[in-house]
Design brief:
By secondary structure, this protein is of the alpha+beta class. Helix content is 49%, strand content 24%. The protein is built from eight helices and seven strands, in the order E-E-H-H-H-E-E-H-H-H-E-E-E-H-H. The longest helix has 32 residues.
């Protein structure tokens, strides 16, 4: 909660450098980060060192991107999850102060790429992992927005179909709907005014 990384060094070595020389600890660390939870069942969590080598790839990342963690961690560059040039664009945005930074990126919309080459629209929140003011890696949380975009598209289609139906029935029908809806909205108020006038006449 201080904004500083929880672990910068282990036995005097940078955190990720230590994991490089201790593969068993690296496996344990990855297993902890990829264990089932409500969060990682929904959002992908991917971490890499500054060379782009993936160090953490949770179960939601496997589901969203279509890769097995064992085929990714320590073997694949994070750039393969993006179309050409997009990973560098994201890193530039992380370093800029415009989207929650510097060294942070919040709710940034970008298209990524699955194992079959399919486009995967996501929202990213990411940050650099710092060691004595020097970046040693990055971590990102990726929210798949494909279903959200499909729902928005269906809603737009339904709205367009309704609009088309109203106009194809003629301007008179459209005017009738507007007046009818307005009357339904105003009728309770008009009834109150009428009741008040009746009461004043009786007085």
């Amino acid at each position: 909660r201080t904004g500083q990384p929880a672990v910068e060094q282990i036995y005097g070595q940078p955190f990720f450098g230590y994991l490089d020389t201790h593969p068993r600890l690296a496996r344990i660390f990855n297993n902890v980060m990829t264990s089932s939870s409500d969060q990682d069942e929904v959002d992908a969590i991917v971490s890499s060192d500054m060379s782009g080598r993936v160090l953490i790839f949770n179960r939601a990342a496997a589901r969203i991107f279509g890769y097995e963690p064992a085929d990714v961690v320590g073997r694949m560059s994070v750039e393969r999850l993006y179309p050409d040039g997009v990973a560098r664009e994201v890193m530039r945005e992380i370093r800029s102060p415009e989207h929650g930074g510097p060294y942070r990126l919040e709710d940034y919309r970008v298209d990524m790429m699955g194992s079959r080459g399919e486009t995967i629209p996501v929202n990213i929140s990411a940050a650099l992992i710092m060691d004595n003011d020097k970046p040693i890696g990055s971590v990102g949380v990726f929210t798949d927005v494909r279903e959200k975009l499909r729902m928005e598209a269906r809603l737009r289609t339904a709205q367009e179909e309704l609009r088309e139906q109203l106009f194809t029935r003629g301007s008179g029908y459209l005017l009738y709907r507007i007046v009818d809806d307005g009357f339904d909205y105003c009728f309770p108020m008009l009834r109150k005014i009428g009741n008040k006038l009746d009461a004043l006449e009786e007085e």
